[in-house]
Amino acid sequence: MQILSMVLGFASMFIVVPYLSSDQTTYGIYTVCISITIFLSYADLGFLSAAQKYAAESYSQGDREREVSLIGFAHFIFLCVTLLIGGVFLYFSFHPDQLINNLLPGRQTQTAHELLLILAFSTPIVVIQRLVQMIFGIRLEEYHIQKLVIAGNALKILSVFYFFTNGRYNIVGYYLFIQIIAAFVAVGGIWMARYKYQYPLGQLVRRFRFSNDIFRHTRSLAFSSLFITLCWILYYELDSIAIAKLLGADAVAIYAIGLSILSFSRSLVGVLFSPFSSRFNHFIGLGQWSEFRHFYLHVIFLTFPLVVFPFVAVAMMSRGVVISWVGPEYAASVEIVVWLVLCNILGFVSYPTGIMLMACEKIRQLYLQNALMVLIFWGGIFTTVGIWGIESFARFKFLTFIFNGIAYLWLSLQFLGISLRSFLRTVVVPYLPGLAVMLGVLFLIRDSYITGKDKLNLALNGVLILGSIFVGLMVSLWTVPRLRQYVFQLLRLPSKHGL
Q1: Quick check: pTM over 0.85?
Q2: pLDDT tens across 400-425, in order?
Q3: Domain identity same for 365 and 335
């Protein structure tokens, strides 16, 4: 279900964005308005991640009462802050010119007003979504929710043909519709939890309040998570807003193409690694440290090709993707796409290491790491934006992610107690033949992309990219016995039969 959800989300982005981006200025306004929704993801002040860690440990120990108390407390904090943020969105809906530079009176201002107004009144939906995700996530069964998400995404895709065809460009109606769909999916998740787990919703409602005991227990980890959140907002979430103020809505639209791919790739990697957060906490709750280290290294080894191969392939074929996706008028987005796609190239180690540090409560390392990322990113922007323009944001976004990946690799080696040479020999070297073959295929077809904005052209370019990734993965399946053994075990095939 996770894979189906990712595929549908991938299709959603490449189907929906061409319709939205047909009006470049309005799409820039939409991007700015939507980009500020990310603040809702961080409105928990760090208590959601802290509560999820301890709730997962409580679940592994069979303590449901403690689990419910932790979940109720964290989401009470989340709701309070979310309502405050909704009030800020409401203010900006009546003063959109304070958020977007060079906004023309009339249609542009009205569009921004209506989008922000819908956003302000739909903020509580996020609280229900995160509540459902936590209940299923700590049980390692979040894939059940993906059934509802898949249905919702399908409706969102189909709605595009109503809101953006036959001369219509109703971006406000589209945004209202997707918020309604999100509400139905969230409520459906609550019903599913009640039906599947006999989850005590009445008890959860009673525990939906502030608790001094839980606050004292979670505040240290929560405040470190809050600091990480603030740093993450500063170096990751403010691009569109800063570009809108410095360079205007058209520049935001150019940058948004790469940012859309980065956000989607981040979502893909997040979905890939999300189940491991609760699993890591299960190991800690049961005191199984040796098994934890073995499982942690196994995760890094198996996810290396799933992360590295696709990002390299998309980066090499980025021109064809951009031109066939949104048209030649977005040619300036090609280089931005390359930089932003490669941001997650070290995600196979940075994502699980970040989860491991949070699970092990390595607070000091988290503080230092994230503070340095903010300094690197904005220091680079302030010194080069006058030279490179919007490309400055993309280049230093990439450098910041690479710094993060290298630092997390060092922390990973410390946790595992192995050398860099041993790590490379175990994780990276086995996949080099498959990666080399994929690069060779991409080099041969790099000028064979299909030009012209058209869904069929985009699909053909996608086939070229997926084909090269498939070849690389098949070579790896042949040359990496450990991977082959795992895949055959997963498929229940006898490994002695070979390929």
Answers
A1: no
A2: 999 989 999 999 999 999 999 999 99
A3: yes
